């Protein structure tokens, strides 16, 4: 057994920039020459009885959060939001027509940006459009990302009436100094009020999203934040590592790097916050999620059915995921397709009754085997890589090359590799992405690594 005090040093010794692996291959591998006929063929191959997951992207926020790495537009006017809504509803209707069948939806997620930018009437129209184009399972999960500062009694009632049954409240931290440094002033009472309004509207399943590694964060402050979080009685808590990528997002350059926690403190922050949550009875899931044992995601993890998509961890295993709106990504058994991020191109495509595609990727070669291995590591912290490789019938030499990349982690006691089975020690959760990177055929160079944030 390793001395717990040495685990941190050993983890940090291996830390480097790698993808978050919400997909494999990662999004930077997608290409702009993705052919529209391929996308059309993938849609045509979705059977009428398929079970679908839908993602709707609302790329607007009223205020800039300095830490944010999402695709957003900052606006104080509602006119561009209203214009976007007309296009978004039309895109959804066009997709329904292309599919030719009203497939069953088991999961719907509204993300952003801030979906709470939508007026109640427009959110209602949007949900009605989705229900006209697809059949919704009676037990479908309908989830929405919430900015607690925007929740009003009217909006809460609107969500309840529209069938929303899970909310994700974007909290990040409850420490005033931290939130001021990232331009998101949001006291505890604001979040508490939003939680109560949504509960009164009949929405009880609640996720809370936090970030560690933000400016001015301390162990004492973050553990206090976790204590406050537990008072809100969430079913799930996400504790994401802040990705400081100023070369990628201009708003991140507004954060003073001098007050960011160093790598050692980042590790301590996550460890301390995790300890509070686990002591309260929450189950750790994957690399950064926690849930009550009774929550469907915790039950999926216990059954070996935890999954991962572009929104993070999920208990849903659909036949396909369809994304709507600017930058949204769809996932098919054959690969990925991403919508454009350019407003004018999106408008022209939708008005011309064309899918607003910008990039995509079709699985080839060893992709599916590597994807299965990466997904298992990210979700379960273990995988029988040899069994998966044999199942797909690939050259064992290539598997041996990938496993060899794990030797430094194995030598430090962070990972065990035996007969092609890889297991990550629970105390080494922060290096799961590093272990997954060993199987990434598209991460051979430092140039590719510079597109990503560090793992720990």
Query: Which regions are unreliable across 5 or more consecutive residues at pLDDT < 50?
Result: none
The average pLDDT value, as a whole number, equals: 94
Q: Can you tell me the overall shape? A: globular
User: How many strands appear in the DSSP assignment?
Assistant: 19
**Biggest sheet layout:** 9 strands, mixed
Structure classification = alpha/beta
Structure notes:
By secondary structure, the chain is of the alpha/beta class. The chain is built from 17 helices and 19 strands. The strands form five sheets. Strands 9-10-8-7-6-5-4-1-13 form a nine-stranded mixed β-sheet, sandwiched between helices. Strands 14-15-16 form a three-stranded antiparallel β-sheet, covered by helices on one side. It has a three-stranded antiparallel β-sheet with strand order 17-19-18. The longest helix has 21 residues, at about 80-100. The protein is globular and about 60 Å long. The two termini are about 20 Å apart. The mean pLDDT is about 95.
Question: Descriptors for this entry?
Answer:
single chain; 456 residues; alpha/beta; 9-stranded mixed β-sheet; globular
Question: What's the structural blueprint in terms of helices and strands?
Answer:
Elements: H1 4-14, H2 36-44, E1 51-58, E2 60-61, E3 73-74, H3 79-99, E4 104-112, H4 120-133, E5 135-146, H5 153-162, E6 166-172, H6 176-181, H7 188-200, E7 205-212, H8 219-231, E8 236-241, H9 263-279, E9 283-285, E10 289-291, H10 296-302, E11 307-309, E12 312-314, E13 320-324, E14 329-332, E15 335-339, H11 343-351, E16 357-362, H12 367-380, E17 382-384, H13 385-392, H14 396-404, H15 407-411, E18 415-418, E19 421-424, H16 432-437, H17 446-449
Parallel strand pairs: 1-4, 1-13, 2-3, 4-5, 5-6, 6-7, 7-8
Antiparallel strand pairs: 8-10, 9-10, 11-12, 14-15, 15-16, 17-19, 18-19
Helix pairs in contact: 3-4, 3-11, 4-5, 5-7, 8-9, 12-13
């Amino acid at each position: 057994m390793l001395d717990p005090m040495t685990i941190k040093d050993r983890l940090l010794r291996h830390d480097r920039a790698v993808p978050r692996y919400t997909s494999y291959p990662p999004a930077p591998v997608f290409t702009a020459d993705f052919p529209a006929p391929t996308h059309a063929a993938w849609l045509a191959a979705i059977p009428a009885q398929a079970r679908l997951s839908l993602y709707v992207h609302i790329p607007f926020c009223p205020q800039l959060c300095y830490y944010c790495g999402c695709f957003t537009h900052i606006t104080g006017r509602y006119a561009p939001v209203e214009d976007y809504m007309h296009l978004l509803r039309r895109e959804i209707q066009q997709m329904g027509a292309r599919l030719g069948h009203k497939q069953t939806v088991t999961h719907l997620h509204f993300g952003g940006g801030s979906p709470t930018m939508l007026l109640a009437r427009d959110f209602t129209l949007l949900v009605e459009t989705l229900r006209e184009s697809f059949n919704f399972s009676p037990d479908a999960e309908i989830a929405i990302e919430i900015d607690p500062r925007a929740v009003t009694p009217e909006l809460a009632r609107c969500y309840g009436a529209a069938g929303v049954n899970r909310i994700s409240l974007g909290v990040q931290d409850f420490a005033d100094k931290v939130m001021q440094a990232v331009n998101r002033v949001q006291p505890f009472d604001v979040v508490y009020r939003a939680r109560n309004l949504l509960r009164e509207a009949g929405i009880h399943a609640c996720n809370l999203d936090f970030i560690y590694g933000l400016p001015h964060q301390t162990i004492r402050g973050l553990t206090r934040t976790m204590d406050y979080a537990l008072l809100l009685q969430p079913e799930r808590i996400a504790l994401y590592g802040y990705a400081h990528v100023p070369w990628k997002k201009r708003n991140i350059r507004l954060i003073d790097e001098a007050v960011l926690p160093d790598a050692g403190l980042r590790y301590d922050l996550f460890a301390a916050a995790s300890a509070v949550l686990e002591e309260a009875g929450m189950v750790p899931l994957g690399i950064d999620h926690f849930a009550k044992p009774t929550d469907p995601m915790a039950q999926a993890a216990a059954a070996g059915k935890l999954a991962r998509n572009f929104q993070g961890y999920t208990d849903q295993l659909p036949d396909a995921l369809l994304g709507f709106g600017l930058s949204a990504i769809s996932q098919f058994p054959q690969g990925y397709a991403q919508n454009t991020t350019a407003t004018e191109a999106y408008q022209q495509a939708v008005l011309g009754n064309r899918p607003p595609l910008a990039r995509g990727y079709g699985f080839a070669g060893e992709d599916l085997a590597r994807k299965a291995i990466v997904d298992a590591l990210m979700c379960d912290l273990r995988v029988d890589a040899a069994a998966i490789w044999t199942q797909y019938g690939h050259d064992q030499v290539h598997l041996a090359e990938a496993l060899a990349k794990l030797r430094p982690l194995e030598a430090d006691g962070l990972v065990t590799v035996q007969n092609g089975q890889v297991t990550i020690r629970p105390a080494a959760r922060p290096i799961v992405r590093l272990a997954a990177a060993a199987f990434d055929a598209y991460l051979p160079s430092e140039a590719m690594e510079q597109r990503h944030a560090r793992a720990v």
